[in-house]
Amino acid sequence: MNDSIDLNEFHWLLAVVQSIDVGVVVLDRDYRVQVWNTFMENRSGIQPKDAQNQHFFSLFPEIDRQWFSRKVESVATLGTPAFTIWEQRPYLVRFMNYQPITGEEEFMYQNTTLLPLHSPDSKINHICLVIYDVTDVATNRHQLQAANAQLQQLSSIDRLTGLYNRGHWEENLKAAYARHLRYGNELSLVMFDIDHFKRVNDTYGHQAGDKVIEQVARVLREHVRDSDAAGRYGGEEFGVVLSDTDKEGAQVFAERLRKAIEGLEVMHGDQRIRFTISLGVADLSQPANSHADLIAWSDHALYTSKESGRNRVTVYG
């Protein structure tokens, strides 16, 4: 039985599935199109008569030819199907996405199946490519991931300041301490709080106090590096984890921050609010049992700054 009879039989079967919402393409071993169903016509804009006997790679130059050829040859040699999924390869052929519900996606996400088509003599002279539109699945996954990322951010960020909250900030400190134990890199911690903050609240009100905290956080963000972890430790107290920084470098950072806050003026209504901060610095130049020691040392240094007159930096030890 010759190939034309084989393809005629396949066309009879294809007539049954012509209306299903998947792409069906049959390729010969030279990658020339033998079958092109309605799905492919509608999505590509290429009519079956124009696709017939055309080289598949000329119709879709975006396809990774080497990769796709390996796939097809494996199917033809082993006689078993092969698959691609959108998570690993978003699409095989680039079709625009026109679905109204998932319209925010620029292109159609696709899963594909490559099927060996056995002739009566058991030879595999043709490969069937089936393309599934999974844009709705991809969109739902992306929306879920975005929602989870937003929830994760909300759970780790202090709402008033936009800095890390205490729990997430302390996890960053733990991780930095673990890296120090493994690699021996420098690690410093700066703790500081706003001097006489209760007086600010009592004099100007709690809304003014919140505005002061917000402005301190803004200035802090301007001074930290991407590798640093700045957080609100509680109330008017803040902490900054400085990786790859010894106490001398941390002292320089702390002094710059102190001067920036000292020169800050917060407007609340027609009130001009000026204030200062006191800071404590500690590093791991002496042995520590855990990250909690670093917190205790820098907090002790902070207390010393307050006892010594405030608006100053103290280095532990």
List key phrases describing it.
single chain; 317 residues; alpha+beta; Beta-Lactamase; Alpha-Beta Plaits; 2 domains; 11 helices
Q: Extract low-pLDDT stretches.
A: none
Strand content: 15-25%
**Ends: how far apart?**
92 Å
CATH topology of the largest domain: Alpha-Beta Plaits
Number of domains: 2
Q: What's the total helix number?
A: 11
C-alpha-based Rg, rounded: 33 Å
- Biggest β-sheet strands, sense, barrel: 5 strands, antiparallel
Q: In CATH terms, what is the architecture of the largest domain?
A: 2-Layer Sandwich
Mean pLDDT figure: 90
Helix/strand-derived class? alpha+beta
Query: Tell me, what is the CATH class of the largest domain?
Result: Alpha Beta
Would you list the SSEs in sequence order as H and E? Answer: HEEHHHHEEEHHEHHEEHEEEHE
Q: What global shape is seen?
A: elongated
Q: What is the count of β-strands?
A: 12
Main sheet strand line-up: 2-1-5-4-3
State the helical fraction: 40-55%
